Amino acid sequence: SLQKWVLREISNFEYLMQLNTIAGRTYNDLSQYPVFPWILRDYVSETLDLTDPAAFRDLSKPIGVANERHARDVKENFEDPTGTVDKFHYGTHYSNAAGVMHYLIRTEPFTTLHIQLQSGRFDCSDRQFHSVPAAWQARMENPVDVKELIPEFFYFPEFLENQNGFDLGCLQLSNEKVGDVVLPRWARSREDFIYQHRKALESEYVSAHLHEWIDLIFGYKQRGPAAVEALNVFY
Q1: Which of 43, 126, 131, 212 could form a disulfide bond with 60, CB atoms 3.0-4.6 angstroms apart?
Q2: What does pTM read for this prediction?
Q3: Does the keyword section mention Iron (predicted)?
C-alpha cells in the first residue's frame, strides 16, 4: 500500500486508515482509536487557500510544539532528572480514550461514556470541545494539550451538531451556551467544513509533507534518539 500511496493510487485518507489498522488501531478500542493529524492552522480566514503553505500546520513537528514557543519548555521538561520514570516531553498523549470522547461528546455512545468517565455528569463546559478554531487555539497556547484529530473530522459532519439537544452548559467567559461545534469562518456549514477539510488532507502541501507526521506517529521518530531529537517522547 506504500507503493500505491506514493503513486497516488490511494488517497491520503485511505493510506492513513491503512496505517492505523496495521498499527493495531481500531474503532472498537477507544484507547487505540485511529489517529489523524491536525493539518491546518488557518481557522480564521473568510476563505481557505489550499495553495498557501501558511494555511497548513508544520507536519514535521509534534502537535505539542506546533507553536515554536513551546519547544523550549518541552525541552526543559525533558531534562527533569527525578530518575523515577523514563524521561518524557509530554505527560499526556496525542490519542487516548478521553480524547475520543472529548471530540465525539455529542454522539452516542460516546456521550454516555463521557458522562460515566466524569462520574455521572458532563465535564465543565470550558473543557468541552465547543469550537474548532478554539481547539486549535488551545494547541497554540497550551503545550499540555497534545490531542491530534480522529478520522471523523474528515467524513462525519454529524458529530459537530448537538442533534440530541444535550445540555452542555455555558462557557465561563462569554456565558455562551455550548451547542453545535463552532466552525472556522471559511466553513459555510458542517458539511462544507468536512468537504474542505478533506480536500485539505488531499492537497498538494499535505501530500508532500504527510510522511513527516507518519514518522512521528507510526515511524522511526516514535522512540529512541530520533524521538528525543524530534521532541516526540510521551509518558
Answers
A1: 212
A2: 0.93
A3: no
